[in-house]
Amino acid sequence: TSNLGGGEITEMMQGGMGFIQPADKPAASLDQKVERTAVEAARRKFAPEFMNRLDKVVVFHPLRRQQLEQVLEIELAQVQDRVLETAKGQFLFRVTQPGRDFLLQEGTDQRYGARHLKRAIERHVVYPLANLLATEQVHLGDLICIDWDNEQDRLTFVREGENLALPARKPEPAPAAKAAGARNGKSADAPNATPSPEPSPRLAR
């Protein structure tokens, strides 16, 4: 892999002024320019003998807004799954469009795509939610709305609902059989222990 032509492609995507201008640049035409720029940069860098040995040149196209939003949706869904799979403190949350815009701004870059999006979600969503749970400000069955506050210049976390019906927890996979002993050169599997039921968390209001 190589980042040949990366600077030229970034300038092309941002219109040379640091601002993305998707409305002014048709997707098909821009993709062709990106591919042509990358291939030309490779030809300038590598000898013709080396280029002739390549079966194919694959050009990385920067992620567009719609694709970045899809990545964000997947990452937020994974965070929600983590919350619902906990033994206690299960709750729901939703992120408004202004909140999503902030996360995309913090976690994506035209040069690096969505590489830092997971870190931004951990820092701005997961850690604050964990703090609310640790301080008992969020409870079982709550619905938390995460929004962007322009006046405070930060994300806000507001309880929108209480005692909501939660999706059923995913069944945990059976523990792998473990060797308990050996007799005549053969291993014996340990019996599966029946886990004791966990006490239901109490609602503190």
TrEMBL record:
GO cellular component, one term: cytoplasm
Highest taxon, organism lineage: Bacteria
Entries under Pfam families matching the protein: ClpB_D2-small
Biased composition (Pro residues): 194-205
Key words of the record: ATP-binding, Hydrolase, Nucleotide-binding, Protease
Annotated InterPro entries: Clp_ATPase_C (IPR019489), ClpA_ClpB (IPR050130), P-loop_NTPase (IPR027417)
SMART domains according to UniProt: ClpB_D2-small
Domain Clp ATPase C-terminal: 63-157
Biological process annotations from GO: cellular response to heat; proteolysis
Region (Disordered): 163-205
Species lineage: Bacteria, Pseudomonadati, Acidobacteriota, Terriglobia, Candidatus Acidiferrales
Organism: Candidatus Acidiferrum panamense
Molecular function terms from GO: ATP binding; ATP hydrolysis activity; peptidase activity
The protein's name in its UniProt record: ATP-dependent Clp protease ATP-binding subunit
